[in-house]
Every structure is written in structure tokens, then in C-alpha cells.
Amino acid sequence: MISGWWIVPPLLAWWAHVLWQRRQVNSLREELRRLRSEHEELSRRLRRRSDRMDALFATMNEAVLRLDTQGNVVALNHQARRAFRLPKHLPLPQPMTALYRQPGWNKAIQKALRQLPEPYDLPDIHIQDRTLAVRLAPLGHEQALLLCLDVSKQRDMEAQRERLVRDLMHDLKTPLTSILGYARTIEAFGKSKKLRKEATETIVREAKRLDQLLESMLTFDQLGNKRLEPDGCCNLSQVVHEFCALIKPVAKAAGVKFETSLDADIQTFPMNADDLHRLMTNLVDNAVRYSPEDGRVRLTTARQNGHVELRVTDEGPGIAPKHLPHVTERFYRADDSRTAASGGHGVGLAIVAETTARYGGELTLANRREGGLEVRIRMAVSGNEAASDKPLNRKVRKVTQSK
User: Fold this and answer.
1) Residue ranges making up the domain that contains 195
2) For residue range 316-345, what is the model confidence (pLDDT) as tens digits?
3) Cis ω for the linkage preceding 9 (within 30 of 0)
4) pTM
């Protein structure tokens, strides 16, 4: 019986080891619960942070997407859904290749993600008629921010400017070539009265074309440098009288009847005489050029509810509805019957629009039911405006063909 006590120490040692292992397991469980709690807290904080970022991005007017380092879209705002033409309840995450299927661009975004946080220029995104300029920025260690700016108008303006420069180079070269050629004709055959007269008339005509092109461009430069504030008023009848003396010979030569009808109650017009002259020149000259032979162009004024209106109507082909919202943009050229024959540069109505806006006026263009275009300029006037009796301090300018 005594010899059986030898097993007690091993049993006690085993039991002590079991208790120690149990304490270790309990300690590990506590550590695991602590780590799990910290992980859940960290996840909640990250979710709150993501929610705050998404809420912030939702208030932005630009399209914003959050991407992981593999190029998957994990979040995007409403503007991004509209820009990429995505359904409202698109499940996320989605690979960027599913949102924009352009292989070259997707290769570029993958390279940019691998290169973060180093900058990398991404090409524009083209979706139907919209152009998006893209900027990629790191967002922590595992995500990136894709900011897409709608630059459709800027890109269109750049394309229009490039086209304008090409057209101007051609249009400047043509009259210069004619002037040079006929100058040499006078030099070689100056004794011939007939050739001298023909060469002189051609040189004068081509010089006028050059002057018209340069005046249009200088007008834009002046408008761009002026402050957006009213710049006085003028004697309406006096400006119109001077203008008619210039435009009637042009209309007669084109076989177009030009008529005016001025409201006798309107003594002054809330615009500087130079600007009003430029405005009427662009509107009436364009109307004359686009009117058919024996057509009629009318310039009228009227007073309505504290405003004065200046209207110019013609009997030409009008402007296609799809172009009406854009013809007042700089360098916009509508490829329709109204502009195809004129070879214009898309600046005439832009000059009118910017001049009117500078005085706080309203410009409206509409096609007439009976045919032709009607342009209205509506200006606010105060009740105490008096007629301007001062002489017009400017040179009488030639009518410019500016569209």
C-alpha cells in the first residue's frame, strides 16, 4: 500500500500543468476577445470615416470614386453615377473596367495605382458627348480617390479655337494674296486704265475683309478687358440715324429692304454709343447677309414695363433648333444653311451676347413662324434717364461682317 504513493507527485504535476494550460487558454480567450473588440471598434471607426467621406463626396458637384489598390470601385457619388451612366442600385464593389470599357485607359489607371503616391497623368474619359478630366490621389494606404471634372465645354472651346485659327489663317492668306497679286498687276500694267481700276477695286475689297476680321478679334479683346458694369447711355435716335446711313447702302447692294421703327417715347438707350453701334452692326449686317433677295430686315424699339426692347428680324433661313442654345458661344459655328454660305467665324452673336450681358440685359433668339430669325435685346431703364445731347465722340465706323 505504501508503494502506491509514488503516483501522487506525477498526478499533482499533471494537474498543475492542466491548471496552467487552462489559465493560458483563458488568457488567450481574453486576448482574442480584446482583439476582436478592438477590430470591431476599428471597423466601426473606418466605416464612420468612409461614411463621412462618402457624405462629403455626395455634396460635391464633380464625379468622385473611391478605388482600392486593385482598381475596384468601392464607392461613388451621385454625380459619378450620372457621368458614367450607371444604374441607381449598382452593387459595389465593381471593377473599374465594368464602368468604363476602354482598354488603353484601364491600363493607364492600373499603372497609376501601382505608382501611387507618385503622380501620374491619366488620359481624359470620353462618355458619349461628355469629356472628363481625371485626377488620381492616394487615400490612405489601401485606397485612392478618382476625381473626374467635366471639361466638355473647355475641350469644345479649345477645338473651336483651333478651327478658328486655321480658318483665320486661310481667310487672312486669301485677301493678302489677292492684294499682293493685284499690286503687282498695277506695277506691271499701270498704264492700262481698265486693269488699274479692276486691281484697285479688288485691293480695296480685300483690305475691307482684312479689316473686318481684325476688328472682330479686337472687339473680343476689348470685351474681355472691360469691367462688367454699365457704361452710360446714348441718344438712341442719333445712333440709329448714323447707323442707317451706313447699313442702307449695304442692304441695297444685297437687294434687301431695311426698315426701322423707333418708339418715340424712347429718348435714350441704356448703353454706350460705341457698344450700341457695334451691337446693331453685328445683328443687322448678319440679318442682311442671310436674307434672300427682295427680303426685308426690320429694326424696331419698344418700351415695356420699365424695359426697352430692341428687335432685329429677317426673312432668312433661321437657325436650326439644335444650334440656337449655342450660337452665342464664342467661335461656335453651326453647320447649316445659315452659316454654310457665309463662311463666318462664329463671333458675331457672341459679341452681341457679351455686350448685352455687360449691361445686365437679356438676349433672346427665336425662329419666326413665317420664316427668318428674330433677335430681341431687353434692357432695364430707370425713370429719370434723360436724353443725351452730347455729340457722339467716335469715328463713324464701317459696317463689319462679323459672323
Assistant:
1) 154-225
2) 998 888 888 888 877 676 655 454 445 455
3) no
4) 0.49
